[in-house]
Each structure stands twice: as structure tokens, then as C-alpha cells.
Write a structure and sequence with these properties.
Blueprint (H helix, E strand, L loop, with lengths): L2 E5 L8 H14 L7 E6 L2 H12 L7 E5 L16 E7 L1 H11 L3 H16 L7 H24 L1
Parallel strand pairs: 1-2, 2-4
Antiparallel strand pairs: 3-4
Helix pairs in contact: 1-4, 3-4, 4-5
Amino acid sequence: MPIDLVDTSGTASTDADALLRQAAFLLDRLHLDPDAELSIALVDEAEMTRLHVEWMDEPGSTDVLSFPMDDLAPGDPLGPRVTGVLGDVIICPAVAARQADQAGHGVNDELALLLTHGVLHLLGYDHAEPHEHERMFALQDSLLADWRSAQAES
């Protein structure tokens, strides 16, 4: 599966291999073709702040940004798999580390959550309205539970 990951965050504790495995898992579970393209970038806080201001017109840093390309949607388990360029997920490990500390779980758990969240945004999910929030976060929770279960089995 054409998944690229670039890490310019300067964070030594990031498990890039785990993120790549999780990305492949997510695309499979969301019924995307093995040739669908996804780019993941891990950036430092200064870069995330720059991107957040430039693209969202909001001050300061954030945890994850998603930039969809081909406006793909999840596939159907019974139908042909969806292919194309999914887009870019940008994650800031420094922000993730703070959020993990506040939530009382590990940084890798937070990064897994952010990757899942970002991929769902690439597929058109949103959480601006209550019904959208419920739908997106239910799927996010389900995917994360499946990912954790798959990791425990391996």
C-alpha cells in the first residue's frame, strides 16, 4: 500500500513503523484499495503552528490536520475497493505528548487516535454538528478498539 511517512518532528520516541502498520490497517478496514495513497507527516510545533494559521486561519498549534486530495469515501465491504489519492495527515507529536499526559495514556495511544481521526477526516467525516460528531467518534472508537485488538493478537 503506498503509504509514506516523513518525520521532521525531532521526537525520538515516535514509533513510525507502528503508525505505518496502523495506517495500512485503517485503509483495509475502511475498504480502500491497496493502491490508495496516503501521506503522513510528523512535524514539530513551529511547523504545525504555521500550517494551522495558514490553512485553518486559527492561532497556535494543533494536534492533527488533514488535507484530502481525491475526496474519497470509505468503500463497501461487498463492493470494489476505493482507490485514489487519499491525502495528507499532519500530526504534531509534541502536542500529542501533552494530550496523552492530560488523558493519562501513552503517547503512542494518542498518536494512534490522531492518525485514525485524521484518516477519517480525509474520508469526509466531520464533527461540527452533533450527529456528525456521534457518527465520526463511534467509528473512530471502533477502529481504535479493532487496532488494539489486532496488536494484542500479534
